[in-house]
Amino acid sequence: MTRQAFEHIAHELRPRLKDIGRRFFGDEDKAEDLAQETLMRLWLLRDRIAPQADIGPLAVRMAKNLCVSEWRKQQVRQGQAVQVEFVAHCDIQRDVELKEDIDRLRQAVNQLKPAEQRLFRMRYEAEMDIGQIAAATGVGERSVSAMLSTAKRKLQEILTRKGDPQ
Question: CB count, 10 Å around CB of 17?
Fold first, then answer.
């Protein structure tokens, strides 16, 4: 197909293709984009189209297929946007819950005896091992271990009490 023949056919097809896009999308800009995309694809196929062939039905089918493809892409983008929004909401909710849990744990630690608080903070905030705590406090490793165990049990009781809706 020659360039002049294609230009003639394109001039005739453009209003029909825009009308398909307008009816499908309800948007003039998207209708124009559809017409341009369809004509561009037809141009790329021009060497395979017989000179006497009626390309009107082919152009209409291509336009409708492009409409469906665009609609599917929009559905995927909307689904991804909803998913991203949901994940962001879950992340925010998780962060808020984590902060609340940390605050509850700090309040519970503050209810321990001062020696238990100090050992607990050394172990879990400063991340010291039992040997380092024993060396720093001058208390035997078994005693440190027993005091930490008692402190954890007390914390568990405090947190369980606060969690009960009594």
Answer: 26
pLDDT one-digit tens code per residue, 77-127: 676 666 666 666 677 777 778 888 888 888 889 999 988 888 888 888 888
Do 63 and 38 form a contact (C-beta atoms < 8 A)? Answer: yes
Instruction: State the CB neighbour count (10 A cutoff) for residue 163.
Output: 9
pTM: 0.45
The encoded tokens of residue 49 equal 């189209």
Burial of 134 (0-12, 13-18, 19+ CB in 10 A): middle
DSSP state of 111: T
CB atoms near residue 34 (< 10 Å): 25
CB contact at 8 A, 15 and 31: no
Closest CA to 10 of 45, 48, 64, 67: 45
Residue written as tokens 């082919």? Answer: 58
d(CA 13, CA 8): 9
10-66 pLDDT, tens digit each: 899 999 999 999 998 898 999 999 899 999 988 888 888 777 778 889 899 999 999
What single-letter amino acid sits at 39?
Answer: L
